[in-house]
């Protein structure tokens, strides 16, 4: 039901009785501490969760032999908290302790061993080490394939996890392949209104959203919502997530009024269902802030980003990557407002956190360098802009597969600097590199592909080759007209450019 205050009330009453009745190192007392920790964990209060999990663990360590499965369970809970706190090295440390115990205590094809491999894979995924993530998720999957029936829901979860890594790698066809394998199992194994089936629809919708196929994305996200409406109470956090995801598709489409409508439904539920300092509430405020930023309403954007930041500063440790993301978003608003010193200040705050929290080749670190580069570009400091864009590009080249959309964006950014410098040949060279990746990685009507056509067209216009410019700009317009709402700013901008080029011809 998600009534955490009630759950806490009863667990604490139970705990008081146990404290009075049992010796301080009794295993039942450890279970009681653990239960309280679970509630705090679900509330997003990770420091409190850690406090109670560690109390539970101290008792368990004294009471049980070092290879006991309950000790592994205890380490696992602590690892999960550290992972959510963004402390990935600590998370790995505890998950590896779990794995050692399970490797000694259990047969090699035991599902609990698969769960351990899966958890370690998840940390590597969060760290941006996708090859390691795949390695551990595949180890997990091999065990599940041997140990479980072919329609077991855990096997579907395993396919989902592998799909998620491919999605993060930008390999959307592979992601879709694994998400669909998961979905087939869920359809056979679960009743039609089961939340896991809804999650499966949501995952498939998310890939279509990344591919720019917004009608397909909406179709699957709405199936997810339909199930959750039937299966869950109206103020359940998972229902809020569904509204949020549909909002995300409309946001990507540039339909900001629709995006706001769904993001606000998400916020309404999240405020009722979760405590006021829960990280999910921060995400809700953040998404609304993002829409206002896209709409050019910067005061509203700052208001909502500020609300998100306040919650995150209270709820998460000061070096958590989510905090960096919010500093980054505020920096983006100031950059759009032309307040470059403020933008630089927030981007630097974000970057300092990411440098400490993430491995040096993490894609988010590259994005951070790219944002600082953007400020320098907008300030007209082209050499500094190139310096930061190239730092970003080096990371993307190491961290991502060669056809990842982020690598295309990176080439595009470098091209844009040369474009601003009036070096149109160099700009074209980088715009075309970007375009080649997008042609391979994205469907033919993806808005990002239109950006490539638009930028190549602008570079040809700069060179005075207006017939070439017109061809590329018209292709950009054609894609945007199919994929974006008719009042989207990109359509207006490219239409004006086409008029300008035609006059020049």
UniProtKB/TrEMBL annotation:
InterPro entries: TPR-like_helical_dom_sf, TPR_rpt. TPR repeats lie at residues 30-63, 72-105, 114-147, 156-189, 198-231, 240-273, 282-315, 324-357, 366-399, 408-441, 450-483. One of its GO terms (cellular component) is microtubule. The keyword Protein biosynthesis does not apply. Gene3D superfamilies: Tetratricopeptide repeat domain (1.25.40.10). It comes from the Eukaryota. Keywords: Cytoplasm, Cytoskeleton, Microtubule, Motor protein, Repeat, TPR repeat. Pfam families: TPR_1, TPR_10, TPR_12. It is found in: Cytoplasm, Cytoskeleton. PANTHER family: NEPHROCYSTIN-3 (PTHR45641:SF19), TETRATRICOPEPTIDE REPEAT PROTEIN (AFU_ORTHOLOGUE AFUA_6G03870) (PTHR45641). Oligomeric complex composed of two heavy chains and two light chains. Kinesin is a microtubule-associated force-producing protein that play a role in organelle transport. Belongs to the kinesin light chain family. This is Kinesin light chain.
């Amino acid at each position: 039901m998600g009534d955490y205050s009630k759950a806490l009330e009863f667990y604490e009453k139970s705990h008081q009785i146990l404290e009075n009745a049992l010796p301080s190192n009794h295993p039942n007392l450890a279970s009681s501490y653990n239960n309280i920790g679970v509630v705090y964990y679900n509330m997003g209060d990770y420091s409190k969760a850690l406090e109670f999990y560690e109390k539970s663990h101290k008792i368990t360590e004294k009471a049980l032999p070092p290879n006991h499965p309950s000790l592994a369970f205890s380490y696992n809970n602590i690892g999960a908290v550290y992972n959510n706190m963004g402390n990935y090295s600590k998370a790995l440390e505890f998950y590896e302790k779990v794995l050692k115990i399970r490797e000694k205590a259990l047969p090699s094809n035991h599902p609990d061993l698969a769960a351990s491999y899966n958890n370690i894979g998840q940390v590597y995924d969060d760290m941006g080490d996708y090859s390691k993530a795949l390695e551990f998720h595949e180890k997990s999957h091999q065990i599940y394939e041997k140990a479980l029936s072919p329609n077991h829901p855990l096997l579907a979860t395993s396919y989902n996890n592998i799909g998620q890594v491919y999605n993060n790698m930008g390999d959307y066809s592979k992601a879709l392949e694994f998400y669909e394998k998961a979905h087939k199992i869920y359809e056979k194994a679960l009743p039609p209104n089961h939340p896991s089936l809804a999650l499966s629809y949501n995952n498939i919708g998310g890939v279509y959203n990344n591919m720019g196929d917004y009608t397909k994305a909406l179709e699957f996200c709405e199936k997810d919502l339909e199930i959750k409406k039937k299966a869950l109470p109206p103020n359940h956090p998972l229902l809020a997530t569904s509204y949020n995801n549909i909002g995300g598709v409309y946001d990507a489409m540039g339909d900001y009024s629709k995006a706001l409508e769904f993001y606000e439904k998400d916020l309404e539920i999240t405020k009722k269902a979760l405590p006021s300092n829960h990280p999910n509430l921060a995400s809700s405020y953040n998404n609304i802030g993002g829409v206002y930023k896209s709409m050019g309403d910067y005061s509203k954007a700052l208001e909502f980003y500020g609300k998100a930041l306040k919650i995150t500063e209270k709820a998460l440790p000061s070096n958590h990557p989510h905090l960096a993301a919010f500093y980054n978003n505020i920096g983006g608003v100031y950059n759009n407002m032309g307040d470059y010193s403020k933008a630089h200040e927030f981007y630097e705050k974000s970057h300092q956190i990411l440098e400490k929290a993430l491995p040096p080749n993490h894609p988010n670190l590259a994005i951070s360098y790219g944002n600082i580069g953007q400020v320098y570009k907008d300030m007209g400091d082209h050499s500094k802009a190139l310096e930061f864009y190239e730092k970003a590009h080096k990371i993307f080249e190491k961290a991502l597969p060669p056809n990842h959309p982020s690598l295309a964006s990176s080439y595009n950014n470098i091209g844009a600097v040369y474009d601003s410098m009036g070096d149109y040949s160099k700009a074209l060279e980088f715009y075309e590199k970007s375009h080649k990746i997008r042609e391979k990685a994205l469907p033919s009507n993806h808005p990002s592909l239109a950006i490539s056509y638009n930028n190549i067209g602008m570079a040809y216009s700069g060179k005075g080759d207006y017939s070439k410019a017109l061809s590329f700009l018209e292709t950009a317009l054609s894609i945007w007209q199919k994929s974006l709402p008719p009042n989207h700013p990109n359509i207006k901008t490219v239409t004006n450019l086409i008029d300008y080029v035609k006059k020049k011809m």
